[in-house]
Amino acid sequence: MNKIAIMGAMPEEVAPILEKLGEYKTTEYAGNKYYEATYNGVELVVAYSKIGKVFSTLTATTMIEHFACDVLLFSGVAGGINPSLKIGDLIVATKLSQHDLDITAFGHPMGYVPEGSVFVETDKDLLALSKEVANELGKTVVEGVIATGDQFVHDEKIKANIVKHFNADALEMEGGSVAVVCNALNVPFFILRAISDTADTDASFSFDEFMESSAIISAEFIMKMVDKVISK
Ligand code: 4EZ
Fold first, then answer.
1. pLDDT at 111 over 90
2. What CATH superfamily is the domain 4-231?
3. Would you name the residues annotated as active-site residues?
4. Ligand 1, from 207, 209, 211: best to mutate by most atoms within 8 Å of Cβ?
5. What is the structure's pLDDT at 1?
6. Where are the domains of the chain?
7. Quick one: which atom of ligand 1 is closest to the CA of 174?
8. Around Cβ 219, how many Cβ atoms within 10 Å?
């Protein structure tokens, strides 16, 4: 039986999920709150990590190693790169990279360190389930590359550079590190984001305006994913 971790980075990203749970138990651990609930007969652990690769690494590791979750779903918002992605559109990561991991001085590609890999791939079964969910909801979900780094990108040149190195469709600040953790610990994972901005000069304004509505769009899809995982 699965114990499902549902992660976001910011409170707004998990609030719509907590609303759907009814009763839950709150535990404080390693500087974060973890919300445990039974949902349709299955145990869930929900948490927001705080922003960035380090905090998200800590939370993903905690959910797996301390709370014994055996599948991880991430819900949140992202900056869009692929021009087909508009505000509120959903993107599912097929693979993720760390766009700010740079030892190119030694001839390595961007995003690569020895014994690591430029990209970490998402679980194929969860990707297949997300297609079923998208079909049932009649929703278009773009599958693509998500690039992660410790930076809120609001600059066309930086965007272009991320496209050059990773051919990324969207960018954010947690997915790539969560992917590394789940891959290393053999836990299937799924990273979903709804677009809040397009990482250009207006990004911070767009983010402030749309992050809450986009977070809800992502959370609603993630709860349908939970239903699917439970029914399999
Ligand atoms: C990080 N998250 C943004 C956190 C912003 C403000 C207080 C997603 C995101 C993002 N990350 C949305 N748009 C982005 C962008 N343009 N660059 C990086 O995961 C916190």
1. yes
2. Nucleoside phosphorylase domain (3.40.50.1580)
3. 13, 197
4. 207
5. 67
6. 4-231
7. 19
8. 24
